[in-house]
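Bug: token stream looks shifted between consecutive jobs. Job 1:
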Amino acid sequence: MTLLQKEYNDVSYISGPLLFVNAASDLAYNAIVNIKDGSGRIRGGQVIEVSDEHAVIQIFEDTRGLDLATASVSLVEDVARLGVSKDMIGRRFDGLGRPIDGLPNVIADKRLSINGQAMNPASRAKPEEFIQTGISTIDINTSLIRGQKLPIFSGSGLPHNELAAQIARQAKVPGHEGDFAVVFAAMGLTQREVSFFTQEFERTGALARSVLFLNKADDPTVERILTPRMALTTAEYLAFEHGYHVLVILTDLTNYCEALREIGGAREEIPGRRGFPGYMYTDLASLYERAGVIQGKPGSVTQIPILSMPDDDITHPIPDLTGYITEGQIVVDRTLNSKGVFPPINPLPSLSRLMGNGIGKGKTRADHKNVSDQLFAAYANGLDLRKLVAITGEDALTENDKLFLRFADDFENYFIGQGGQDRSIEDSMTVAWGILSKLPQSQLTRIGKDAIDKYYGTKVDEMWKGNRI
């Protein structure tokens, strides 16, 4: 379909990244337009509101130099679209899908709406296939399942970027390594972070199976709103048209929500909690709900959104709303990080609601769930005893209590603190049994006798940093 090149010249008002055009009620919501100024410079934009009086356009670049008298608006596309191709794998793009790796534009097989197509709930398949991240705390205690959306809750200054890069490098669906791809979208990055991710993906070879969308902090705010949608459109195309199992990593959703708040302020909307738009729940759901498995389709889209909680407040609107929509959370812990433990993931407040669907006999290992429960219980007991020791001293503890106290140290140092190791599910289970075997068999109340007889006494010869269990 050829779009008529009608121009709209009655620009009435400019506020931040927003431009208001009168007598443009025939423009469509989400349409892509060009804004031309008096000097001939052309900027891109998207229609975000249409009424009988005016249309509101988000401009993708800065608005400096735009003059109300000479600016004109012309229609480019009826909706924001991205040209997609299988050749996008191994490439780097900016937040609007333009190449930034020095290579030519991708020759698109299709141009798809970045808003995606809603999955029919009746056609969704039950997520029940394990994804191995190579990180013990996730794989054993908070397992990621193909088609799940499992966010990482972090905080300012914590190593969530390093964690994201490690997951992107190591993640796989066992048995489907050749059909696995990563779509990585980063929003509001500093130049140092852009360099880190670029070098990390190239150094480790992860770029060969990845598509990167990198939005910098000094890029226009509006671009930050489009970046995750560009990434998810690419993921859906690779998954449902080429059969890939796609892991989408979105970081940092806090920067995305701040952009929503900034644009809502420019539109003079009535703010909700802490100044964020009242529709932020719906907006986040439009991103998160694009994960899933479709019956009859070989591919899948799995999401790991990463957000940094302001002031480490898990009740802040961003993690709070995210928790309602997604299926659990992985919590990055500041106390563990201060001890030098990496990755500093605390399993106690972490949760994967779909974990039970994808683990166990024939999927991971028959004793997986029981071992996970025992690790939770023993670690929680050890942390309680640490608090008691701070008051009464270690002399007041029984011999069993002292074993649990040492278990907590071993669990943090050897199981959680694996550094940059890539552990298979078998490796992680071996480490878990090596630590549990330091407790008396009578204390392993969450594990069946058959598993204890088979695995109790497991020896782990060489551990991280050359230490031994």
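Job 2, same session, no restart:
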Amino acid sequence: MASFEVIGGNKLKGNIYPQGAKNEALQILCAVLLTAEPVTISNVPDIRDVNKLIELLRDMGVKVVQNAADTYTFTADDVNLDYLETEQFVEQGRAIRGSVMIVGPLLARFGQAKMPKPGGDKIGRRRLDTHFIGLEKLGARFNYDTPDVFYSATADRLKGAYMLLDEASVTGTANIVMAGVLAEGITTIYNAACEPYVQQLCRMLNRMGAKISGIGSNLIVVEGVEQLHGTEHRMLPDMIEIGSFIGMAGMTGSEITIKNCQIPELGLIPDTFQRLGIKMEFRGDDIFIPEQDRYEVDTYIDGSILNISDHTWPGLTPDLLSVALVTATQAKGTVLIHQKMFESRLFFVDKLIDMGAQIILCDPHRATVIGMNKQIPLRGIRMTSPDIRAGVALLIAALSAEGKSVIDNVEQIDRGYQNIDGRLNAIGAQIRRI
């Protein structure tokens, strides 16, 4: 198990480029199963979860050609459905959460799909009911093998239907849309997720010949077609990385420029960090963060304490609450962090408290952060990364702390962040992989 040894207290300076979006990649890669023609995808992040999904597709019989470091061509003209019966498939499917999104495309094109209960971060229960209820409304028949924790599904040609999703699930919406594009008739999805990643998927599918309207809204209408063809697609930069770099610059008092951010797709992310006191300038499509010795948390108009919470798009993504929390520890002022969507994502704050942060964990969903105005820096300690996003928040804390920190289990961070130690070292960080 690898670790990061971090010497904190260094100011960073320079340009940093965000990787391609992990959460978009997991959807887009599954969509290649919808056509026998080549699909070329660029800006693919070189991270563990994405690489595992590419490996799974290759083992299923998809031809994969790497054209450049971040560009692949996928041709799913000879998919081996028998592979779904193997132990290797079970192991691969359980390794990554995003693997559940192969179900919609396989059902739509081949009439059958199998899936072990997928894994991913240990951040509380994340149910799959939205996926399966939606696919059942299109005509799929599901069977759940309780002892083996294994799902199987069959369908004749899927048929379009109206559905009101019980939650605006991003992956659930993506799975249903991918099934609906080859279904007979019209599929109407109300309370659909409308994150930029879902929009990207829908635009790519339309270029492949799908007929999807309502893109960017919570009412998506899909008119089924007989078949899809190949296309080219470039993924967005990762908004979670961009937000992480903004918080990191504020915590370390650094001057950095985050390049090629696709700012219109960031939603409330810049606003949230500005409310925490982080100054920034938009320079074309770049975000410039000037060096700041101090930053102060905003309050509401009546002077009451700021509350930062997650929500479905266009609200703040839950993946950035841990970074917002860490950033608040060195601000001037107090903020309540409210994690509404997952039940265990605040359970890393004990490490921050050990580093000297002033945090009250009110319950599994809420934490009150009393900022120290950089008067008392955090101190380096040894800690363990519990999940991808908390791991990066702890890395940011370590970069700002006095002395040496060691972060264990950095394989969690590697699942979501491409060469994060190398990229940060290039702008002045001191991180050593041990």
